[in-house]
Structure formats: structure tokens, C-alpha cells
Amino acid sequence: MATLLYRLGRASLRHRRLVAVVWLVVLVGLGVAAATLRGPTASNFTMPGTESQRAIDLLAERFPAASGATGTIAVKAPADGQLATPEGQALVKQVTQEAATLPGVVGAVDPYQSQAISPNGRYALIQVQFAGRADDVTDAQRDAYEKVGAQAEAQGWQIAPGGEVLGGEPEVGSTEALGVLVAAIVLVITFGSLVAAGMTMLNALIGVGVGMAGLFALSGTIELTSTAPILALMLGLAVGIDYSLFITSRHRQHLIEGLSPEEAVGRAVGTAGSAVVFAGATVVIALAGLAVVDIPFLTVMGLAAAGTVTVAVLVAITLAPALLGFAGHRVLPRRLRRAGSTAGTAPANGMAPAEEPTGSGTAEDRSGFGFRWAHLVTRLRVPVILVALLGLGLLAVPAPDMRLALPDASTAAAGSPARVNNDLVREGFGPGFTGRLAVVVTSDSPQATAAAAPQVAKLVQATDGVLAVAPPQTDPTGRTALLGVIPRSGPTDEATEELVHDIRRQVAGVDGADVLLTGATAIGIDVSEKLSDALPVYLLLVVGLSILLLMLVFRSVLVPVKAALGFLLTVAATFGITVAVFQEGTLAGLVGLDTPGPLVSFLPILLIGILFGLAMDYEVFLVSRMREDYVHGDTARQATINGMGHGARVVTAAALIMISVFGGFVFLDDPVIKSMGFALAAGVAIDAFVVRMTIVPAVMSLLNTAAWWIPRWLDKILPNVDVEGEGLRAHLADKV
User: Fold this and answer.
1) Is it the case that residue 356 has pLDDT exceeding 70?
2) Helix 296-327 and helix 603-631: axis angle, to 10°?
3) What is the DSSP string of 694-712?
4) Secondary-structure percent of the chain, ordered helix, strand, coil, rounded to 5
5) Of 226, 306, 577, 714, whose Cβ has the fewest other Cβ atoms within 10 Å?
6) Alpha carbon 120 to chain centroid distance?
7) How does it sit in the membrane (predicted)?
8) Do 249 and 335 form a contact (C-beta atoms < 8 A)?
């Protein structure tokens, strides 16, 4: 692989104008396609095969009037008892009539008829039924809905529209640009050259632009959840910058050694590019592997992110060499350009592996921080391992208490329309009114449905935790009845989860009709439970995959096992700190979180897939140098020190860049994106600095030569992927 990439790098530099034009044409073409073909994103999370989803599908078929999106308008009078006055009743009826005539609305229920009036006569709830699903509601319809009751508000009343219809696509604003700015500063400090930093950033931004444009171009035919593009952007930016950083760093080192720009870029792509391809492949495989859990929206999210990573890899090994060709020696700081142009040509086979120069102008400088840190860690390896394990163990303590749920309006940003509505409903009626359930009773006989519906209502009403059951509504044929159920607890409370299971057990024995429980709350519970069940299976798949892939790269048994165990430590600590902040509220104010709550149900499994790929990045970039030096005669301990010394700088820069990019998304108001950005930033920090740069060299030093042991029969059957560039070294030696 290294030899093939060496040739690709040289060809990309020689034909740099053509390569640049091709990528620009691709970017513009996909941009036009995205602008013309882009479709809406979905805010709902469907789960085929669950009871709640079967009920939704059945309603869409038999009772379409009740299958559309719903809204709840909360009304608060200036004082207690005003809803009972003639003036108050007239005002509420006016708001109800205004809501009923909105575009896309099929009807609004008068709260006096539905008895949705609080005991103190100050709060009322107007139920609004839309014709289409929440994702079908247009921005114009949503805006009109949010402006309902303007005249009443002018009279001192509070009108707060809410409900699932308000779900929209998270907006990417200026806050996350701060992360990109920090990444740019890290690049400038790392390279000491504005040209090198600027080209690395430009390369990454072009890759992100191509990936996102392609994703939006496909959104007209593929249903994307609203978080999928954000995840793709987040990950595409981070890996795009990092992959370009690795190749540019290696190219600069070869220029310092006296190689021509064409030869330098060829070797950089052949060595660092090999590691980039392998690292990118692990990320793509992990994300695409989400399909094995058979959850459609999660599969689409994983494939969307995998697509942007694939583009980042392709851009790094083709466009980066082309841009480096345009820059020539200007990618070096001024003080090093003369040294780079006058230093003798390095031996053709005198290559270091894919990692980083020390930044001092010579590959032989061993006084840098990486070498000093490696000496310290290997000398104090046992205390270092114990302290690191203790620290990660303490961070992981909250992890067993992790609760999963789909987000509801109670955790929305304070002051947002959804949050204001939710707070008013809770204030006037209690938390159960924000998470209503729906029981569907259906059969092929109207008589059977009519007989079963009252029986079901009685059984549900007798279930502990049920506050009220609304009278059944029937479809025009009489074959399907819908009963509204109000629980005593909120949508994400554990008590509501238990209630859903209790109701299903209660109605399981009803004869003559099928009874299904649904509603946004039940859907959220079903999705969370299926994701929780899939989590151990996916974790086992990822750990097994990591061992197999690293065995191919390092021709070792213990190194892959050590890497997999380190990954598990990263996952446990990341889960723990995320639970502490977002679920338990510890230091929640530092991340702008208004209300702690359960973690979004797909976060853990998504986090495992992404962190796996990133952890393997750092493992390859550090340990490949260790293996290379060990194979060429260094002791196991010295090889470990060399790998850390040469790789620490670039891994530190890469980790800081990823932390900055992911951390920029913490400042978004959307709690789902906020938690994703925080968890990924924390996971990268833990894995890069604690696991890979501290525990790994300490354990490698402790294992000594045993780290590189592999049975002969296994060594023979494993294919040689040549990530370190041994084949390329032989190829260059033959040319001399």
C-alpha cells in the first residue's frame, strides 16, 4: 500500500493543477446538486418493528386524521379564575378558532369541551391536529403556528404554542467556528508557518465542503435525521484537519532532510498517507458497522458520517500533495528554508515512519518534550499505570447510572418556544401532560372495537401511574379507536417507562381486538430500549474488529489486546464524565446546560463507533514508529521512547484540533448536539493524553519484547498491509 500511495503522491504533485481543478469541479458540482436536490431532514426517530411504530403505521392507514403531528397551545391567564369569566372564555375560543384555521391544521379542540382547564382556572390547553407528520410541516406553517394568540398576549395573557410540530433542524452558527479558529491557531503553532497552517485548513475545508454537499444532494432521496448532517460536519472537520496535518508534517520533515518537494511529498503520502488510509478505514468501518444493529436512522447517521470521512481521506492523499506542490518550500518556517535547501539529500531508504518531526529542524533532536515524557513514563511505568487507571476509574464511576431517552422539550434551551410551552404545561397541569400516551384499539369489526374500547379504558385507568384516560375517538369506519392517556410522571422519568410496560401487560389479555400503545413518549422508550440492547453487541463487534485490524498492522498479539483494553477504558471514562455533566448536572453550567436529563438514546452507541476510529488513529501513529525501530534493531524500551518522541508532537496537535472542533459544538443550544460535542471532545482528550500517550508507552515498556510476539502460523496467514512503509523502503533502495 505504501508504494502505491508514494506513486499517487508524486503524481498528484506533478499534475497539481489538474488535481486542484478536479476537486474544485467536484465541489461546485455537488454544491449545485445540493442546492437543487436538497430535501428536508427528519426530526422524528422511527423504529420499525416496535409496538409504538406499528401503532403509528396502523393509524396512518386506518385513522389518518389522528396520525398527523400534534401541537399543544398552553394558555395562561393573568390571574386565577379568569378562564371562568365570559371575557376569558371568549378570548380562549378566539385563540382556538385562530389555531383551527391555520394552514396545515385539520382542527383544534376547545379546552372547555375537552375539560383541559386547570383547577385554579388560570391555565388551559388547546390541542391542535395537523394533517401531515411533523417533518411535513413547512416553515411557513410552523411560523404561523408560533404566532397564534398575538392579540391575547397584547392583553396580558401568555400564549405558548408547543408540541412535536415545533421540532426543527438544529442550526449551525458562529459558536462552533470558534473551534475551527482554535484549530487554526494550533496549526500555526505546530508548523510555525502560516502557509502550512493555511493549506492544511484549506484542504480540510474543501473536503468538508465536498462531503456535506454530497450529503445534502442525497437528502432529497434519503431521509436524514436532523442530527446526521451536524455529526457529519463535526467529524469531517476534525479528521480532515488531522489527516492533512499528518501528511504535511511528514512532508516538511523530508524537505528539511534535503529531499526535493516531489520526492518529499511522495514519501509523506507513502508513509503518513498509509497511516491516514488505515485510520480512516477504521473510522469508516466502525461507522458503517452501525448498520448491524438494524436501526434505520442510526444506520443513516453512521453512513453519512462515514461518507465525509471517506472524502477527507481521499482529499488528504490527493489534494494535499497538490497544494503542497504549489507551496514548495514555503510550508517551512523562514529560518528552516535555507537549512532545508542546503541539507544533503537523505538516503533513499532512510525513512522514518508516518509520524511527526520534532519541529526543531532536525530529525535527530531527542531533547523535545515527547522524548522527555517517554523517558519519564517508561522509568516510572508501574506508578504511572496505577495512577492513570485510578483516575479513569474515578471518571467512570457515574457510568453504571446512565439512563437513555429521546430528548423532550423539558431539556430544550431556556427561553425557546418548546421550553416555554413545556414549562407552562408542567406549571399548570403537571409533568404527565407533556408526555401523553395513546392507546390504539383496532379490529376488522366495528362491533368488536366498540366492545373492546371501554374495557381497555377501564384497564388502563386502573394502572398505577395513570392520571386520566380520555374518552375513545373512533375512525369513520368504527374499526379503530384512539384513547389518550395522561401519566402522572414526565416523559423521561423512570416511572413513565415502568408505566408503559405495565399498560402493555394490562391490555395484553383483551379479546376481540388488537391493542397497541404509542405516542412520542412510548416511541422514545421503545427506541431507547432497542438501542440499549444493541449496545453490548456493537461494543463486542468493535473491540473484536480493533484486535483484528491492529494484528494486521503490528504483527503482534499483545499490542492489539492492549489497544482494545485501552479503548474500553476510554469509553468507560467518557460515559462516566458525560453522565456526570448531562444527566446528574455536575458543572452543567460550564457547558450552558439548563436542565440535566437522560442522555440521548443513540449517543453511547454512536460514541463507541467514532471513538473507536479515532483511538485507532493515535494507536497507529504512535505504535507504528515503535515497531519500526524495534524491527530495525533498537531495544523494545528504546523503540517505545522513539515512537513517543517522534509522535507526541503531532498526536498532541491532532488531539487539540479534534477537541477544539468537537468542543465548538458544545456551545449550540440544541442539547443533543451539545452532548455529542462534549462527549467526543472529552473522549478524544482522555484517549489521546491519558491512554495513548501515557498508559500505552508505560505498558509497552513493561511488556518489553513480549509486546511484539506473534505465533509463526498466525504471522504467515495474516496479509501484509505495510502501513509502516517497509515495502516502500525496499522499492526506494532498489532505485539507488
Assistant:
1) no
2) 40
3) IIHHHHHHHHGGGGG---H
4) 70, 10, 25
5) 714
6) 45
7) Multi-pass membrane protein
8) no
Cα 393 from Cα 300, distance rounded (Å): 33
What integer is the mean pLDDT of 179-195? 84
Answer yes or no: are the C-beta atoms of 96 and 83 closer than 8 Å.
no
User: Coil, strand, or helix at residue 540?
Assistant: helix
Tell me which of 227-231, 259-263, 340-344 is least confident. Answer: 340-344
**pLDDT bucket at 314, cuts 50 / 70 / 90:** very high
Grid coordinates representing 629 are 525501530
Q: How far apart (Å, rounded) are the C-alpha atoms in residues 189 and 372?
A: 20
What whole-number distance in Å separates Cα of residue 40 and Cα of residue 284?
25
High-pLDDT (> 70) share of the chain, %:
91
Cα–Cα distance for residue pair 45/297, rounded to 1 Å? 7
At 487, is the secondary structure helix, strand, or coil?
Answer: strand
Separation CA 628–CA 722 (nearest Å):
11
The dihedral over CA atoms of 173, 177, 178, 184, expressed in degrees to the nearest 10, equals 180
Distances in Å between the alpha carbon of 706 and those of 424, 568, 621, 703? 65, 22, 20, 5
700, HSE (Cβ side, Cα atoms, 13 Å): 36
3-state SS assignment for residue 576: helix
Q: At what angle do helices 194-218 and 228-256 cross, to 10 degrees?
A: 150
Q: What distance in Å separates the CA atoms of residue 361 and residue 350, rounded to the nearest whole number?
A: 17
Closest CA to 242 of 570, 723, 606, 615: 615
Site of grid cell 411504530: 53
State mean pLDDT over 99-115: 88
Q: State pTM to two decimals.
A: 0.83
Amino acid occupying residue 302:
G
HSE-CB of 412 using CA atoms within 13 angstroms: 19
Report yes or no: 324 and 265 within 8 Å, Cβ to Cβ. yes
* Burial of residue 340, with CB atoms counted within 10 A of its CB: 0-12 exposed, 13-18 middle, 19 or more buried: buried
Query: What's the rounded Cα separation, in Å, for the pair 94 and 692?
Result: 64
Which among 174, 260, 242, 255 is positioned nearest to 203, based on CA atoms? 242
CA 641 to chain centre: 34
Place of cell 522509568: 379
pLDDT of 385 above 80: yes
Q: Which helix (H) or strand (E) holds 87?
A: helix 86-100
Distance CA 269, CA 267 (A): 5
Show Cβ contacts of residue 226 under 8 Å, excluding neighbours closer than 6 positions. Answer: 41, 42, 43, 167, 168, 169, 170
Measured over the CA atoms of residue 242, residue 244, residue 247 and residue 251, the dihedral's sign is negative
Q: Where does 381-491 have alpha helices with state H?
A: 381-396, 417-429, 446-461
At 723, is the pLDDT very low, low, confident or very high (cuts 50, 70, 90)? low
Distances from the Cα of 456 to the Cα of 102, 441, 481, 536, 704, angstroms: 34, 8, 10, 36, 69
The pLDDT of residue 368:
76
Helix axes 381-396, 696-703, angle to 10 degrees: 140
Grid coordinates in use for 315?
482529499
Tell me the domains of the chain and their CATH numbers: 1-43+172-365 (1.20.1640.10), 51-166 (3.30.70), 367-412+529-720 (1.20.1640.10), 437-518 (3.30.70.1430)
Q: Which three cell numbers stand for residue 56?
A: 403509528
Q: Is 293 left (phi over 0), alpha (psi -120 to 50) or beta?
A: alpha
Identify residue 216 by its one-letter amino acid code. F
pLDDT, tens digit, 9 for 90 and up, residues 171-184 = 555 566 777 888 88
What average pLDDT score do residues 171-199 get? Answer: 79
Q: What is the pLDDT of residue 357?
A: 37
Q: What is the pLDDT of residues 114-156, one digit of tens each?
A: 888 999 999 999 989 888 777 778 888 888 998 898 889 988 9
